[in-house]
Structures are given as C-alpha cells and as structure tokens.
Amino acid sequence: MFEGVKLAFPKISARIQEIGGEKYIWDSLRQKWLLLTPEEWVRQHTIGWLVSEMNIPALRITQEYPVNINGQHQRADIVVIDEFAKPHILVECKAPDINIDNEVAMQACRYNAVVGANYIMLTNGQKIFCYEYDGRSYRPVKSFR
C-alpha cells in the first residue's frame, strides 16, 4: 500500500485503525477518524511538516477550506492563516502517484483567486513546489516567510 511510499516529509506518528476492512487515520486537528487514502496520507504528512519544521501553530491550519468558484462549492486541502486571520498559505495535496503538473498548478491558482493567500504549495508528498503570489503573478520560492 502507499503507506510504504517514501515521502519528502519527515515521518509522522500516525494512529491508524482498520474498520470494516478499510484503514482510517486519526486527524488530530479535526479530532476524528478519516478514511486513509493516498491523498490523506500526503495531507497528514504535510500538516506534520508545517507544524514541526515550519513552526506553524496547529490552530492556524485549516483543512477542507471552503472555496466557491462560479457557484460551485469546492475545498482547498489546507489553508494556513496568519496572525490576522488572513489566508497566508494555500496547499494543494495530491496522492504520491499523481504528477504535479500544470493542471494541479492551475487548480491551486483558481482556488487562490478566491482565497487570496500569499503563497501556494503543491505537493504529492514526493515533490514540493512553493510559489509566492504578489497580487498579479506567481514566482517560485524555496520557503515561506
């Protein structure tokens, strides 16, 4: 299964249980069990990295952030808010076998046209791409400020 796939993020201490033949992972932020999909595996590692390596307080991390695009309700995987409760980083997570391509980047840009975060991050757990948004265009960056 995908749990053995090597990710670019540090290992996390994950609580996993099997219910009815399916695996679930404990989401400590939302305080509930979630179906363990490859994308959820990447999301939980991304959150662990944001908290442990980027020193972002867990209380500033929102999952499944609502985004309304042309009357359609969609959700950004992760949005980190700043100290003023303004979106700071929008993260789009994909399963490890999904290539981070132009389509994924455009999805994040569409979401960010509504959200208005300073940064977007795209990851499939193996590759991580970060971009800073200046209000008009995106430029690649190595880390967030």
Structural features, described:
The chain contains two helices and nine strands; from the N terminus they run βββαβββαβββ. With 145 residues, it is α+β, with helices and mostly antiparallel strands. It has one domain (2-141): tt1808, chain A (Alpha-Beta Complex), CATH 3.90.1570. The strands form two sheets. The protein has a six-stranded mixed β-sheet, sandwiched between helices. A three-stranded antiparallel β-sheet has the order 1-2-3, with helices on one face. A hairpin with a 2-residue loop joins strand 4 (61-69) and strand 5 (72-81).
List the helices and strands and how they pair.
Blueprint: E1 16-19, E2 22-27, E3 32-35, H1 38-52, E4 61-69, E5 72-81, E6 87-93, H2 102-115, E7 119-123, E8 128-133, E9 138-141
Parallel strand pairs: 6-7
Antiparallel strand pairs: 1-2, 2-3, 4-5, 5-6, 7-8, 8-9
Low-confidence residue ranges: none
* Spatial extent as radius of gyration: 15 Å
Main β-sheet description = 6 strands, mixed
Percent strand equals 35-45%
Structural class: alpha+beta
User: How is the CATH topology named?
Assistant: tt1808, chain A
What is the overall silhouette?
Answer: globular
The mean pLDDT is: 94
Could you give the order of the helices and strands?
Answer: EEEHEEEHEEE
Query: How many structurally independent domains?
Result: 1
Task: Please work out how many helical segments DSSP would assign.
Answer: 2
Which CATH class is shown? Alpha Beta
